[in-house]
Amino acid sequence: MLGDISVLDKVYIVCGRTDMRKQIDGLCAIVEEQLKMNTNDNCLFLFCGRKKDWIKAIYREKDGIVLLYKCLTGSGSYKWPRNQDEVKSLTWKQFEWLMDGLEIEQPKAIRPTEQTT
What we know:
By secondary structure, the protein is α+β, with helices and mostly antiparallel strands. The chain has helices spanning 24-34, 92-99, and strands spanning 10-14, 43-48, 54-61, 64-71, 87-90. It has one domain (5-99). The protein starts with 9 loop residues before the first strand and ends in an 18-residue tail after the last helix.
């Protein structure tokens, strides 16, 4: 059963290009062998291909690993960091920006003000 990703502890973006033909085993191998991280952790790992129009994600649930992917329709592309063999930890806000097609670093982001009634 697919769970709620908002309960995951961390979101990691695997920078650079990933061969999008890879499935669960190949993506887990990247995380464990190349990045020396553990797929058993309560984390979401994001991967992107050459064209930057697909994202694949993996995370572990108690009974197995879940593979998700999103393919953009139209002419858009994700703002994906290309430093090969690097992984970055994202905040949930940065994850939201990425999914909205924005850069993960928003130096001029304005915090919403609280409204009093």
